[in-house]
Every structure is written in C-alpha cells, then in structure tokens.
Amino acid sequence: xxxxxxxxxxxxxxxxxxxxxxxxxxxxxxxxxxxxxxxxxxxxxxxxxxxxxxxxxxxxxxxxxxxxxxxxxxxxxxxxxxxxxxxxxxxxxxxxxxxxxxxxxxxxxxxxxxxxxxxxxxxxxxxxxxxxxxxxxxxxxxxxxxxxxxxxxxxxxxxxxxxxxxxxxxxxxxxxxxx
Amino acid sequence: xxxxxxxxxxxxxxxxxxxxxxxxxxxxxxxxxxxxxxxxxxxxxxxxxxxxxxxxxxxxxxxxxxxxxxxxxxxxxxxxxxxxxxxxxxxxxxxxxxxxxxxxxxxxxxxxxxxxxxxxxxxxxxxxxxxxxxxxxxxxxxxxxxxxxxxxxxxxxxxxxxxxxxxxxxxxxxxxxxxxxxxxxxxxxxxxxxxxxxxxxxxxxxxxxxxxxxxxxxxxxxxxxxxxxxxxxxxxxxxxxxxxxxxxxxxxxxxxxxxxxxxxxxxxxxxxxxxxxxxxxxxxxxxxxxxxxxxxxxxxxxxxxxxxxxxxxxxxxxxxxxxxxxxxxxxxxxxxxxxxxxxxxx
Lengths: 179, 346
Hints:
The structure holds two protein chains of two kinds.
Chain A: H1 3-7, H2 9-23, E1 47-49, H3 64-68, E2 74-80, E3 93-101, H4 110-114, E4 120-122, E5 137-138, H5 140-143, H6 159-165, H7 174-178
Antiparallel strand pairs in A: 1-4, 2-3, 3-5
Chain B: H1 3-38, H2 54-64, H3 75-91, E1 102-104, E2 107-109, H4 119-140, H5 144-175, H6 180-186, H7 193-196, H8 198-211, H9 223-226, H10 236-261, H11 270-273, H12 277-303, H13 311-337, H14 339-345
Antiparallel strand pairs in B: 1-2
C-alpha cells in the first residue's frame, strides 16, 4: 500500500461523504398501514374459480390445470351434472371437489394458462397467513367467486388474449353465445 | 458564601444534570434517526410527531422489563457497576463552562458549576473512572463474554488515554492553564485552538471515540464476538444505565471537544452585533450547544460509516501510531513555543 492508503484517512473521509450524501436521498420506506406498496398490474396472488355471466361455474374438471401445475398443488374430483343443475354448472361435467394447496403453490400462473374454459385466474389478492397447514388447502368454498361479489380479472388478460377473444370463430364457449 | 450563591449553584447543578439527561435521551433518538437517514430509511416515526416521544417509550420499556440478576454473579458489584458508569458520566459536566457569566442585578452568575483551576485533570480523572463501571460490571456478571468485554474496554481505555493525555499536554502548553474557563476565554473571537493544534485535535477526536466506546472502537460490546460484551448479563434499567451512560459520555465528549478546540461558547464576530453581555451569554450557550450537537452528529456519522476495528488493529493504532503522533505533536509544539530561545543558541 502507498503511504496515502496506509493513512486510511482519505478512505475514511470519502466514506463519510458517501454516507452524508445518503442523508439527503429519497427514503425507500413505505409507511405501511397508511401507505401500501402498489402491486404489479399482473400480480399473481390467490386464485379464483370464475363463474360465467349467468353465475354457473366455468370449471369442467378437465384436469389440465393440475397437469400443468409444476408444484402439484391442484387436485380435483370430477362429477356429472344432474338435470336441474344447469344454473350451477355450465357444462355436463364439473369439479365436485377442487383444492389448491396454497403452501405448495408457487404462483407461476401455469394453471391459468392451461385452462381452456377461462375458469381459473390468479388475482391480486394476497393469501392469508394462517397457523395450520390444513387451513391453507383452499377448497371450492374459498376459491369459487361469489355471485354477488365477482372478482375482477381483466388485469390478468394480456393484450394477446384480449385480441384473441375478439375472434368469435375461435370461441370455445359457444353455448353462451347461442343464448 | 451567601445563601443566594448556594441556591443559584444548586439550581445550576440541577439544570445541568437535567440538560445532560435530556440531551442523552434525545441522543438515542437522534442516533436512530441519523442511522436511518444514512441508510435511506425514515427511522422511528410512530411515537408522537416524527417519533419525538420515542425516547420516553424506550425508557418505559427499559423500566418495565424484567430485572434479572444471575445467580452466580456478585450481586453487590453487579449493581454497583452500572451505577458507577452513570455516576462518572454525570460528574464530568461540573467543570464545563456552558456559557459566559450572566449579570443580574449587579451580581455575576457564572454558567459553569465550578471553575476549579485543575479542570482538565478533574475531567481526565473522572473519565478514567468510567472504566471501573464497565470493569466491575463485566467481572461481577461471572460470564466469560462479559469479562472479555470488560477486559477489552479497560485495555482500550488505558491505551487511548495515553495518546489523549499527551495531545492535551500539548494543548496545555500553548494555553498555559488547566482551567477550562480560562481556556475558553483565551479562544475569544476566532482564536480557536483547532488553528493552533490541528494534529492534537485530531488525535483527541480519535481518542474520544475510543474513550466513549463508540464505533469504530466499540470492541467492548462487539456483538459478533462477545454476545453483548460487558453488559451481556444485564437487563432492565441496569442495561439502560450502561447504554445511557454511553450517550452521556458522548455528550460530554462533544462538550469537551468544543471547549478545548472549538472555542466553547465563543463565536467569531458575534460581539460586533450584540453588545448586551447578558444576551451574549445566552447566545454563547446557544453556540455551545450548537457545537455540541454538531459533534454528537459527527460521532453518529462516523459510527454509521465505519466498520469496527479488529482488536490488534485497535492496539496498533493506539500504541504504534497515535502515541508517536501525539509525542511528535508535543515536540513540534514545544519547538515552536521555544523558537526564540532555540534561535538564540546559535
């Protein structure tokens, strides 16, 4: 080391100047309860199982989401729709049981991408912190949106999807269009 | 010794004591704020506006905490330790001239509790006693980490007191007095001692950091190696006393630095604008505290900039660098002072 370096003092003073500059910097703190951090537009949080316009569940329990899921967090049991349940389930088959283990889920959004029926979406809602593992296996009671409290997922639609939806010839849910 | 004199001195003692405690209290708050700002954070802002009630909340917390005295400790010494630390920290304020004299009704009232003619010696004596608080507390805890921290503290303080003392001897040589009030009066206007003794000031500043056990010399409480250092076993307000004593020491050190080297309550050219001596006295106190606040800030600024020394580096700096430097400073001071006599020799 040269004499100047061995003195340490120049380095100490330059260090002190650096910290002093930080004194006037914009602070990174977000004062939490009053101020909340803005989520990304396409934040991937808790899932929702959508209903269609008439209020029937869109999910047909095809299992593609479960196959797509890299964390194997999704399980479901399919059932056949009985006569008189048309207002509840959109197609002949539906998910009698649909569970997502929120502790396994990595919130990648692959289920959403795999779903052919636009039934599952990730939303900007945060998953609660709970005390037991069992509570965090969310069933249909939590996942399916309530008819009077619809969950807005338009933010999750990429411009490609929005564009695709304008082509009616590709629509896979023609039953609704017929109505 | 009249009754008014006694009453006035008693009031002054109490006022200085309260101010010392208040400043130390708000130093803890300032420390957290400064630390936060230097790290791009905001710092405490929940208790009261801008968090100014934070020291109160901390104090209440300290008092309410469970008092724990280890079963294997020496109980008497365990209690005496923090008491000594606090006592010696509070004692040093007695000789510091906080401002020029006030004149009320023909009587002059000095803003210095006592102007003893050996002020510097008293200051050094009391400051060196502070190490006993740490040493006794660390030893009485009967814990190896406490003991190690205490040993470090005492060896560090002894090492740095030598350099500090020598740098002060050079100052005493130029001022020719040990009385603090005279030292301040000599620095009237802009004749600050920093201009006469820049190297001495620098050595004194470094030693002051070491004496107050502040970063980068906070080895006695080096968390990474010693758990909590000498106060590992302490809890509740006994711990609070140790931490508080550190802040009082910082305040007193800042006061001493401003008194020795930065003209104390003097401010250049102020007597051109203000002529009333009482107003000058009040302004003097304000300047004194502004200087103290600045040095407290420097203490914190250094703490949140520099990493901690390693122990051998600390000892190297103390014995191999600072002591030779301070001796050199002493020599230069002596040569400059005796230059006429030396010239006459040839």
